[in-house]
Amino acid sequence: MTRIASVLLTVLVALAALWTAVEAGDQPQVNNPPEIEEFMFDFDVKAGNLLGIDTSDPRACTRVKVNFKVDIVDHEGDKVTVTMDLDGDTKLDDAKRTIDGSGTAVASKTYSTFGTIVLRFRACDVKGACSSILKTEFDVVACPPEFLDIYSEVEMGQMGKTATLTLSSHDVQDDKVTYELDWDEDNAYEVITKPSAPATPVKVVHEYQDQVIHWVNLRVCDTKDGCSQPAQRRF
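Above: the chain's sequence. Below: its structure in token form.
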């Protein structure tokens, strides 16, 4: 009986200690998974055609490095590993970054082909708790050059007039560009300039044999991304 009483006393003491701990609020800690607070991407160029991720039509140019930033917070301050799918193959194997507690995981990728890319991100702490997988998408597109400046002048002569255009442009990838001009309104670009640096002004001169009004169609092109929208000038 003494042995049974001793066991019962031990059990009662243990139960009393447990009850005291519960009363004192000494509950077991719950490990919350890290959270992905924000995702951003941008071009690593001076100026480009990239539209922000918060637009209805996010896009990135081919052959330009795209930077990705994922803001993470872990409420317990645990070390967190962020894995990323940047090529849209559903595998979180394109980038792996580790941060302490809270911070920003950074990665980059250059795309060579066109199409819609579905990006995926996940954050897991050292205790094995993971966030849900964040998914978003954007289109990789060709980014042709655009006109930076079109300066036109005309000089009248006895038999006709001389039309002069001085052209410069901007290209996201700094490709060399050519300028194509349709001087006679036949919808054919009969003049194509030699390749040149986009920001370098190029002067083009055309002699008209009459003094009537002429409309000139022109565009700027590179060999990899195509041509800009046509522009017009009147002489």
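The two ends are 118 Å apart (CA to CA).
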